[in-house]
Every structure is written in structure tokens, then in C-alpha cells.
Amino acid sequence: MASVSDAPIWWMALLVAGGQCGPVLIRRECPMTAFVIASCAAFAQWLLNMGLLPANLVLFAALYNVASRCRWHSAAFAAAVVELGALLANIRWFTSAGGPRMPVELIPATILIGSMWIWGNSVRTRRAYLTSLQERAVQAERERDNQAHIAAATERARIAREMHDVVSHSLSVMVVQANGAAYSLRSQPDRAEQAVTTIRDTGQAALTEMRRMLGVLRDGESENDSYTPQPGIAQLDQLVEDVRDLDLPVEFTAEGVPRALPTGMELAVYRIVQEALTNTRKHAGPHVSRARVRLWYGDDVLEVRISDDGRGAVTFLGSTTGGGHGLVGMQERVAVYGGSIHSGPQPGGGFEVVASLPLNAPMNGSSD
Question: Pick from 42, 37, 65: which is nearest to 52 by CA?
Fold first, then answer.
């Protein structure tokens, strides 16, 4: 063991201790650099024969820091350096009359070095695993948003095509009525006036529907010259009957005072009921006993409620039918008319979709 007289002066000991402890400040940004600086300070301590210092424990912390933040080969290099330092320290400072007492004095240091290396590598592996999970979550969220955007764009394109059919049908009615008015203008003025009134009402309704859909039209859609009107509330009975033929019992009720609705709104109601019943048939499971479709005409709102007693609460949310995308398509339709839609499992079991469409929405085309 080095004697007290062989020890360097106190300021050199402080300098060496500072060289080992100082790199702790940059251990996160530059772990390998901090370890190299601390190791060089420890080697200077060995060259100056200072004996062991409390600051030597920093080397083990620096080894852990390298193992937890750097690649495995860098951690292995750091562990080998610390082990070599422990061996040199044992040769110089742990001696007896017969020479160095190895490996008795070296074993505890080796165990501590191995423990720091294993602990650091475990932390680094876990940190990398958590980072990969976060990246996967971000990627999954990004893909989900992209799918939602694609589904919304697809639904808007389909609504645009359907509205083209609706407006085309209205224009065909106007052409027929105009021809009739021109034919009977002098011989039957009353009939001509009625035809002109029909033309006015039909034109205003068509203009209103077109203005409602301007926000969802997409460039590049191919035109469809069909004048066949799209289904509406009047066709719900046939839709329910078709679903019954597929072995799904459906109850259909309409409450309140029915009133004339815009063609596009009737189409939205029909598609919402169609989408909900299709998904009930696909996802409600074998235990569904019946489904219910209820229309309620309020003073200023039309409520569409579709419910079942099956188990389709989870699978319905991401379902696709006929180019739509589950609730995404329904939300697109009700949003056109300033409505809202809610869905979710029922307290007693089953799934329910409730859409509300305002009946007193501003008619943008009435003033034109």
C-alpha cells in the first residue's frame, strides 16, 4: 500500500477527482466522451500513485451510462476498460508480502462491473422496445387518419354522383313540365300555370340540393346521364322487407306527422337505414332476435333510430358497405344537412344508431 508520504499534494487529488466527476454533466448528451474523460483521469491517478479515491466509483456509473445509451460493442469496450483498471489497481495497491492478492481482491470489482454492464444493457433494450412501441402507435394513428380521409373522400364522391342523379331527375321533370306549359299556354292557362309552379318548385329544390353538395363535390368524377331518381323514405318499406327476407326480423315504425323533404335528405335517411341494417345483419351475431327502425317527425327535427339486440358494438365501427365506411359515411351524409349522429352499445345489450336531421334548415335556393 502506498504510504502517506508518497501521496501527491491535495490540489492534484482534487484535480483528478474533478476529472472523474466532471463528465457526469455531459453523460446524457455524450456518454462515451464522458466515460473516456473519467477513464483518463483514473489512469492519471494510477500513474501518480494516488491510491484509491471515492471518485473512483464514478467509473462504474459511467459504465452503466454507456451500456444504457450506446450500442453493445461500445458497452463491451467500456466494461473491458474498467476491468483493466481494476486489475491495474489491484496489482499496485492491493499487495501483501507475497505479492498481489489476486483474484481475491479483484472478484468484487469484477462482479460490480458485470452487474453495471448487464443492468445498462437491460435498460437500453427496454428503452428501445418502448420507443418502437411509440413509433408503431404513431404509425397506426397516421394510417387510421389516412384511412378515414380516404373513406370520407370516397363517400363524398358517391354522394356527388347520387346528387347528380337527383338534380338530373329534377331537370328532366322541369323539361317535361315546360313542354306541357308551352303546349297548353293558350288553350288551358290554368294547367299551364300549374306546370310553371311545378317548374319553379322543382328548380328551387334542385338548386338547394346542388348548393348543399358543393362542399363535397370532387373534380374528375365521371358524369352519369341517368334520370332515375334515387330511393327515399317511401322505399324504406321495401328495404325493410328485403332485410326480412334475409332472416333478420325488422320492425319499422314512423311516428309524427310526415312532411315533404328534400330529395337529398330522403336519400340520406334511406342510406343511413340501409347501412345500419346491413351492418346489423353482418355483425350482430347469431343471437340477435330483432332489429328496429323508427322514424320520428318532430316539430323541427327528423330522428332516425336503428337498434338491435345483438353483439355488433365493436365490429360495426369499422365496417364497410357498398363503398361507404361505417359511421364515416353516415356522418358525411348528416353533416350536409347540419345534423348529428350518435352510436354505441345499449345498456341492455345490442347496438344503436341515432341520426337527427333538422327540418327547418335554411333553403339557400329559395331566394334565387
Answer: 42
CB 309 within 8 A of CB 290: yes
Residue 311: name the closest of 327, 279, 281, 287 by CA.
287
Furthest-apart CA atoms within the chain: distance in Å: 139
Is the CA virtual torsion 359, 361, 365, 368 positive or negative? positive
CA 316 from chain centre, in angstroms, equals: 17
Query: What does the pLDDT look like over 97-145, one tens digit per residue?
Result: 455 555 556 777 778 888 888 888 888 888 888 888 888 988 888 888 8
Pairing between β-strand 340-345 and β-strand 351-358 as defined by DSSP bridges: antiparallel
Tell whether omega for the bond before 103 is within 30 degrees of 0, i.e. cis. Answer: yes
- Reported as type and span, the H/E element at residue 31 is helix 31-47
Name the CATH code of domain 233-358 (choices 3.30.565.10, 3.40.1110.10, 3.30.200.20, 3.90.1150.10): 3.30.565.10
Instruction: Map grid coordinates 345500419 to a residue.
Output: 276
Nearest to 354 by CA among 318, 312, 304: 304
What's the chain's length in residues?
Answer: 368
Please calculate the CA angle 242-243-246 and round it to the nearest 5 degrees.
Answer: 95
The hierarchical CATH code for the domain 151-213 is 1.20.5
C-alpha cell at 281: 345483419
DSSP characters over 119-154: HHHHHHHHHHHHHHHHHHHHHHHHHHHHHHHHHHHH
Task: Flag whether pLDDT at 222 surpasses 50.
Answer: no
CA distances from 298 to 212, 240, 293, 294 (A): 22, 22, 16, 13
Mean pLDDT of the 219-234 span: 58
